[in-house]
Specification:
2 copies of one chain form a homodimer. By secondary structure, chain A is of the alpha/beta class. The first copy, chain A, contains 10 helices and 9 strands. In chain A, β5 and β6 form a beta hairpin. Chains A and B meet through α1, α2, α6, α7 and β8 of A and α1, α2, α6, α7 and β8 of B.
Chain lengths: 235, 235
Amino acid sequence: MSSRSSGENAREIPEATVARLPVYLRALTGLTEGGIATCSSEELAAAAGVNSAKLRKDLSYLGSYGTRGVGYDVEYLTYQIAREIGVTQDWPVVIVGIGNLGHALANYSGFRSRGFRVVALLDADPARAGEEVAGIAVRPFDELEQIVADHAVAIGVIATPAAAAQSVADRMVASGISSILNFAPSVLAVPAGVDVRKVDLSIELQILAYHEQRKAAVEAVAATDAAPLAPGGVS
Amino acid sequence: MSSRSSGENAREIPEATVARLPVYLRALTGLTEGGIATCSSEELAAAAGVNSAKLRKDLSYLGSYGTRGVGYDVEYLTYQIAREIGVTQDWPVVIVGIGNLGHALANYSGFRSRGFRVVALLDADPARAGEEVAGIAVRPFDELEQIVADHAVAIGVIATPAAAAQSVADRMVASGISSILNFAPSVLAVPAGVDVRKVDLSIELQILAYHEQRKAAVEAVAATDAAPLAPGGVS
């Protein structure tokens, strides 16, 4: 490894900021859909659910500071963040495991709009081969290596049952895939240099539960306070 | 609103910390599955993908400081965080829209393990009524109000196509649901006091793309550095 490649690493953005960039992108997409062309850091922070000081700090890593008194240009900031993440380029993706979740992922418009192009749907069940989902033919899992080579696939999505996930990951890594998005409820072991991210569909539900619990607590306190004043409240 | 209920609000944890608590919970579950009983803040921070100073600060809101020289007890910290989020209690949930995604969500084990209990699956298509998914009968959407009242449902999940999402949200809110998890690719308008969170399945893919892009850049620099030294590198 050369000193120049270490220097390249040093420019890297903090991991927590990286994780928030797609959230800003989602918030900016919402603003665009709402016909908003410029926004203050406070507005964008509110839309993204972070505080505005953190937002400004995060965007400063990208060299984006907005214009005093005007704020950020929504379209330009969208482009800057998308370029930084790398979603302005084309990412060929394979999805393995075409059950209900695989079907839903193949049909998910949010992948295509972010530069992720599903080049193949693979399933271990040979009976599924030839079936078409979202306009793409399901192919046997054994064609993985050929497909990865043909399309220079770097990212694989695992939507299999938990029991199959590790062997699918092993085959993906052996074929040259270096990033795996794992929807299966299992922990994957992969060699150094391979990134794995696990999707937990319950995370957003948990955030809602936190707020529900707070709302219930506030209502309970309000009800206790109000009770002595309510008509017929003496019992 | 009484001063006591405002006092209750003041204890609220910062939103960014709330959003990280489920991530810590997921990391702790991974440690438990790996047979790890105690962990340092550095280990837990690494597993959760945040820096350890932020982790310690976040956990300090819960009154969790670990034990010097020992670290955190994984099981106890899991309980503390789960209690704070509110997932130690039972959350009845309805899922509306039983297409591929709705099927996948109904079967998703991560909901049940976090206290979310799917009490009903609803679909607008009357032909689907009676079909069974994950052991639960699909019911007509028109039964929403009755089900919400019978089970005291506070959280609704929308897995319909985009075009139907707003009218489903309106009916949910009218029936008393105050938190909505929206998988449909559409922005929902809801009254104040109702929380909506939108799931973007591409967020984790974007984080992978960022790292793929970095890996490719580092490899390109390394290749450039190495070229003059490679045999036959003179052209």
